[in-house]
Structures are given as C-alpha cells and as structure tokens.
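Quick one: structure tokens for this chain, please?
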Amino acid sequence: MKKLFFVKLLLVFFIFAGTQNYVHAEAQDKYDPKKNLTCLITTDFYIVHLTTYQEPKKDSGSKRNKFEPYCQELPKDGLTYLAIDFIDRDLRQMPVEMQVVEALPNPEVEGEMKDGATIAHEPVKQYTTGVAQIQANFPKPGQYTLIVSVGDDMFADKIRIPLWVGVSSPFKWTSLLPYLIALLALVVGYGLYRFFLFMHNRKQLGKN
C-alpha cells in the first residue's frame, strides 16, 4: 500500500514534468508576443521585450508566407527583423542606438564572448512609440549579440541580448528548477504522509 502511494506520487511528478515540457514547446512554436511576455530582457535599470521574426523554413510544412515570431533562438540564418518594446516609458524620451554584432569566443577569458563584425546598425534616434526595430541579415549560423545603447555619449547604458542563430542555446541548470522544486515537494509530502501514518498507528496501538 505504501509503495503504491509512492509510485502514484512519482507518476504525478513525471506527468507534471512532461506537461511542462509540452507547454514550453508549444510556447516556442506558437509564440504570440501579444499574449505573453516570455521574452523579457532585464538589466539593472531597464526592462525590454524582444520579438524576432523570420520566414518559415521551406521544409517546415507551413502554408503561411508571413514571418514567424521567435525569441532569442532563431531556427536559421538569413533575413531577420528584431523588435524591442520598451517596458519602461522613460526610454521613449531617450536616444537609443541599436546594432547586431557577431559574438566570438574570447581567447583571453575562457567561457566569455567578445564582439566581432557588425551585422546591422541603426543610428541614434528616439522611439517615441516605444518600439525600436532593426533588420539583420545573418550570414551564417552561430551566436550573435543585439546591443541596445541607451544614451548618446560614452556613458550610455548597454542592453546586451544574446542571439542563437541556427544553433541551440547552452543548457542552463536553472531550467530544471521547477522540476526540482516539484520533486522536493513530493518527497516532503511523502515524508509527512509516513509521519502521520506512523502517529496514527501508534495511537491505534495505544488504544489496544
């Protein structure tokens, strides 16, 4: 009986994990920037929302010709439109410069990237509507960086947004955090179940 209860707990956990993976995959495939804010980029001073657009792959089976929205991971190289929504209204009154650069491994610091060739550039201007756009034609798969500079002097704040074009982003252990929390909750719940069962049996023995 006890083993059956624990098996049920594990089953619930795996169903939860599978559901979360499915929901995440659906969000990636059917991402609608008007219905969610899954691509928020935050810094110490600003919050912006990124949406990138590309034409579907020719072998994707999509019958629509319109551009598909993505976040920081793009399925292929080529023509791409990048849009930044300024969550902070103050940014609408400030000069903003945008550029897309190639990200290259830094030989001096292991695990870090440095800026390479500039792929696209938008000069300093104000975006009073709260939406800044830049068009980039990625020449090949790889890692790139969208740099949004707020201010037109040497002290401008830079919002750096990594982009993975035709490649997968590196695995982050933080993505497992919801599952670890769920597993911990199951373990604690099972422990409490065993404790109360023990106390109940002890009371029963006391009555006898």
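Residues 36-170 form a domain with the Immunoglobulin-like fold (CATH 2.60.40.1930).
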